[in-house]
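Appendix C reproduces, verbatim, an entry submitted by the partner laboratory led by Prof. M.T., so that reviewers can inspect both the input and the predicted structure.
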Amino acid sequence: MATSTKPVVGFIGLGNMGKPMAKNVCKAGYPLIIFDIISERMEELKQVGARGVSGPKEVADKAEIIITMLPSPSAVQDVIMGKHDKDEGWPGLIEGIRHGKIVIDMSTNKPTLSARLAEEVRRKGGEMIDASVSGSVKPATDGTLVILAGGKRETLEKVRPVLETMGKKIWYIGGNGTGCFVKLALNMHLATMMVSFAECFAFGAKSGLDPAVMLEIFNNSIMKTYVSETKGQKVLNADWSTAFALSLMAKDIDLAAESAKDVKMPLPLLSAAREVYHAAMANAKDDLDFSAVATQIEQMANVKIASDQKA
């Protein structure tokens, strides 16, 4: 059997997004080393040729390119630098970094933390880029994510073929952390647009209008948006099946708010939307799709947008 000439890729974080992304890397013929703290998540990828290992350091020891796709900045910090806890801990992938190795963090991360971690990786002789993604589970499965890369351009070019297995468009943004800033800006817009949509439709329903007719008008006018096209009918059907969890959107809004402080930027619209998402979290909407923020607007307005309230 011929030996692959492609670099060995490591992938850490096999959740709803990470698993299909890692599968696309594997399907493209890259030898794949995988790790997730929930070991059961590795089984499906092992069946298509990936090799599971016991922790982040072992991934970095064995792989030339290490990808992380994790749920929070704290998780990224723990995986890269190690988790030092008397009850649960592990050496970070930083301990396996040597000259020539490249870390690609594809998580939605805090820009300042991403830049600091890139410096730690560089001190060990490696390079790191932040490569946040725009898109949810279906684009992750189809390999059509939009990838927003920050770091050295020459480092991006070295790993571009791997990224192309996961994304249809790769944007080079600038230095380390800049990809994270763009991702947060995109999600700020999406979060506020979703609340605005729900508020407009609650206003219409409260005024006696048919939300189905309103949606048809929106989608056949200049008011048509990603939200009205992809989430509008879901809201009318009270279909909260999760493509992007409300809890993750709330986390990203919080990250944007923290990052805005770093650049001395007021966020009046996002601050208002943030309260609605946190109210929805308080009402146990965490694991539903982020479009379920509409249920919070319904509750506040004492009106139903959906034809059949399920949540």
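The CA atoms of residues 144 and 297 lie 32 Å apart. Additional entries are available on request from the coordinating office.
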